[in-house]
Amino acid sequence: MAAPIDVAVGILMKANGDVLLAQRPEGKPYAGYWEFPGGKVEPGEAIVDALRREFVEELGVRIGSAEPWCCVEHVYPHAHVRLHFFVCREWEGEPQSLEGQAFSWEGSVGVGPLLPASVPLIGWLERGGAAVTRRR
Fold this sequence. Notes:
It comes from Noviherbaspirillum suwonense. The protein is of the alpha+beta class. It has a single domain (5-135), classed as Nucleoside Triphosphate Pyrophosphohydrolase, CATH 3.90.79.10. The protein has helices at 47-59, 119-126, 131-135, and strands spanning 5-12, 19-23, 34-35, 38-40, 62-75, 80-92, 103-106.
């Protein structure tokens, strides 16, 4: 099995607990599936720097705080990924669709289908799992 590809993933979370999900655009694997925004970490790039770069490139948002939340490995048919999740409660700007993707603020997630690696995390978030990060 190939070494995993590191991916920085951000969970923009409003004070009321709503989170931002983006829909994968046509032409990418799992097009039409919903995911938390983020992208691949470039060689020599710190994971949190990749997160900040991806949010500017994809959504036009500048992240203020990014708290490490969890790391999940998942093997898709097209790639083995290591997803580094961050909870982001402070940012500048309103999300924009800079890559043509749809996005939605969700309290109790009502969009689908979700990327398989994100499904278990959605349940944890809905049960308040991200609050664990605040106590650290």
